[in-house]
Structure formats: C-alpha cells, structure tokens
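Let us practice reading a record.
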Amino acid sequence: MESSRTGFDEWLKARFPSERIRFQEPMSLHTTFRVGGPARYMAMPADEEEIRLLIRQCRRVDLPWFVVGNGSNLLVSDQGYDGLIIKLGRQYSRLFADGLEIRAQAGVMLSRLARQAAFHNLAGLAFAAGIPGTLGGGLMMNAGAYGGELSQVVKAVRVLDGDGQFRVLTAEQMKFGYRTSVLKEKGMIALEAVLSLGPGDQEEQLQEMEELNRKRREKQPLEYASAGSTFKRPEGHFAGQLIEQAGLKGLSVGDAQVSEKHCGFVINRGNATAAEIYTLCRRVQERVYEQFQVELTMEVRLLGEF
C-alpha cells in the first residue's frame, strides 16, 4: 500500500497547480493554537469537484484525509498527520447576496461573512463577527456566541456525503444541537450554505459587531494563540467557572496555560507543544471531576496521535 501512496505524490502534482498543494506542511501554520507537526500532504481545492476527486483518490489508495478551515477548533499532534489535509480557505470562499439571503462557500471566514451581511444591510450575523473560524467549521459545530448560533440563520446547506454524493440539506435535516450537527455525526462535508437574514441598518450592524468584539477583548485572552473555548459547556454549569473554582487559574504545563483572564481558555504562551496542551486539558478534566463530579468534554477536536 505504501507504493500506491507514494504514487499519490505524482497524482497530486499532475492534477493541482503547485501553489495549491503542499508536502510535509507544518500544521502549526494552519491552526489558531499555532502548534502541530507536518501534514504529509495538503491540497487547497477551488471547487466541489476537486474536493470529491481528492477524497475518491484517498479512498483508492487507503490514505487518511481530513478537512480543515481556519483550524480554529483543532489540536494537531506534534507528530503531525500522515495523510491528506483538504484545506477549504481563500480559494473556496466566494459569497453572493440576493435580497435577504446570502449564499457562501464553506471556506469564507465568519468574520468576513458577518461584515458582508452588514454591508448589504442584512441583520442576524453580528454574533459571528468575532468567531475566528470558517463557515464550514461553523456549520459542523453550530458555532455561536452572545446568544446567536448559525442554526438561527441557516436555510439550506450543500454537502458532500459519505458516499461521495452532493446533497442539499434543509435546516431541519442539519439536526443542529449544542456544538454539533448532522455533519459531525455522519462525516459529511459542508460545501456552501444559504443563510436567511433580516433587514438591518449597516451602521447599526457594524456598531453591534464592534461592541461584541470589545467585550471579547475585555474578557478573552485574544493576545495569545488558542482554540477559543476549550471545553463544552456542561449542563447546568459553565466550564470556565468550574475550572476557576477548582483553583486551576494559571495552571501550566510547559508553555500551555489555563488563561488567567478566562479559565475556559487553554492558551499557548508562545512555545507550547501539542502534547503540553493536551496534557494540561487532561489535568483540568481530572481535577474538575475530582472536585465536582462534572465531566468536561473538549470542544477542540484532536487530530493525530496523542
């Protein structure tokens, strides 16, 4: 099988321009934690057929693959990923406004999407202006903040399902929940979405975004690399509050630290490794369970060996 995988190099070079493929690409360059070893391959597709083509070829040669956007909810191991990273980013980020709807590709940043909505005098996306992820990742996790969630504005999502077929799912078929959706449950890939918004004043929307971003700067450790909220909110509790009550504020493993500004964030103070971040997360989970019998579940997804 290794020989067929070796042939994947040549296959990739033959079908994609050199500026849209990488070999042994450091994942620290593609995650907001700024950690992670090399991906054996990386490709940046420009359309949905290229995405399907990449996955079909991976299946032919039994090569693992994984889709990333901005890497804002991802911890990649120090050993990296021995497979193909399909990065949906700038090459896959077109958006179009039509009346009260916006159609956008999965690689568009949520911050850009929110601002574009405001520029078109549309309301309903201000909450997303400070979320450092892409639409695709946001749809998978039902991203939200300050009382807003993508589930509130999604009309339909075009996906690539596990059988390699393109499908359109309604908002109901997306089965949105707290930080989850059918995409996560079934391993589907979001390609684009139609968002149904309301009429809004551009200046008012921009002011609301600035106000929410001001609150973020005050309360969150945005000056450090992180993956945002590290743990899901346990039912009846707040993760950050439990962590602080357990006396874990500032707890460190190497350069990984429980933020002193907001205990719900594990941060990279500059030179943390993925192993240090993971070890710290496990210690936090253990200590919180010991004291409160509450299990904290990581919101951050893990990729690679830990």
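A brief commentary: The longest helix spans residues 274-292.
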